[in-house]
């Protein structure tokens, strides 16, 4: 198993990063525990909100990785992230989900989640997200991207990303941009690769975080009729 540096740039050299994994799926918790602890991180596990509160009362965490959907519960991972950011603002947060959507990606960003991972996430994707969360405060990268948005994406790619953000389907985007459907799909694949993501929701989350897309006016009501909120390609 690949090893990565496990200490936050702002942490004392003698202390390993503390990560709290929250998921109601035993297999997912075990999977994440194996990857993270195998790479030098100190990992605690929780399957519900109550356990999260108990653990946060006992110790400080540098990062929480929370699933979005908790079956047969009256809360979601966003509620957990909100509790953490309000009561432990020093703790960074990553959201994981099997059901990515524009709505939850934006909601996660508003709660200051530093990443939005789609299941099933590979070992490399998980380690990269954790490493990025610890290495980047977000301030410099966001400022740089806001000042030079065209350095990452071309004008056409940014136009397509804006239409994706507004909820248009690929067919609708092709009509709007006066190009073929395969061309739109090529734009999307290229844009996702540049942003380091694999889905529409994750792309929107990353684009807003970088300042490429303004966070204002992000309600689902702005989406065109008949558009699909979840698209994985």
UniProtKB/TrEMBL annotation:
GO biological process: phosphorelay signal transduction system; regulation of DNA-templated transcription
Classification of source organism: Bacteria, Pseudomonadati, Pseudomonadota, Candidatius Mariprofundia, Mariprofundales
Residue ranges of domain HTH luxR-type in the record: 146-211
Molecular function (Gene Ontology), one example: DNA binding
SUPFAM superfamilies: C-terminal effector domain of the bipartite response regulators (SSF46894), CheY-like (SSF52172)
Gene3D superfamilies per UniProt: 3.40.50.2300, Winged helix-like DNA-binding domain superfamily/Winged helix DNA-binding domain
PROSITE patterns on file: HTH_LUXR_2, RESPONSE_REGULATORY
UniProt xrefs under InterPro entries: CheY-like_superfamily, Sig_transdc_resp-reg_C-effctor, Sig_transdc_resp-reg_receiver, Tscrpt_reg_LuxR_C, WalR-like, WH-like_DNA-bd_sf
Keywords noted in UniProt: DNA-binding, Phosphoprotein
Disordered, as annotated region: 212-233
PANTHER family, alphabetized: TWO-COMPONENT RESPONSE REGULATOR
Domain (Response regulatory) ranges: 18-134
Name of this chain's protein: Response regulator transcription factor
Protein's UniProt keywords contain Cell membrane: no
């Amino acid at each position: 198993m690949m090893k990565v540096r496990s200490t936050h740039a702002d942490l004392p050299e003698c202390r390993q990063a503390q990560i709290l994994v929250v998921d109601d799926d035993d297999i997912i918790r075990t999977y994440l525990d194996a990857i993270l602890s195998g790479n030098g991180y100190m990992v605690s596990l929780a399957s519900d909100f109550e356990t999260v509160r108990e653990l946060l009362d006992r110790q400080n965490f540098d990062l929480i990785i929370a699933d979005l959907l908790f079956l047969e519960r009256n809360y979601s991972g966003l509620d957990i992230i909100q509790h953490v950011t309000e009561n432990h603002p020093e703790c960074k947060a990553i959201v994981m989900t099997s059901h990515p959507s524009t709505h939850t990606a934006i909601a996660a960003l508003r709660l200051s989640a530093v990443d939005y991972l789609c299941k099933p996430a590979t070992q490399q994707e998980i380690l990269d997200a954790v490493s990025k969360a610890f290495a980047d405060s977000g301030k410099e990268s966001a400022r740089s991207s806001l000042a030079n948005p065209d350095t990452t994406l071309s004008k056409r790619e940014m136009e397509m990303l804006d239409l994706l953000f507004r909820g248009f389907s690929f067919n609708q985007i092709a009509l709007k941009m006066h190009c073929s459907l395969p061309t739109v799909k090529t734009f999307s694949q290229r844009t996702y690769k540049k942003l380091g993501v694999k889905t529409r929701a994750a792309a929107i989350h990353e684009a807003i975080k970088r300042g490429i897309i303004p966070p204002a006016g992000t309600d689902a009501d702005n989406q065109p009729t008949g558009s699909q909120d979840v698209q994985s390609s």
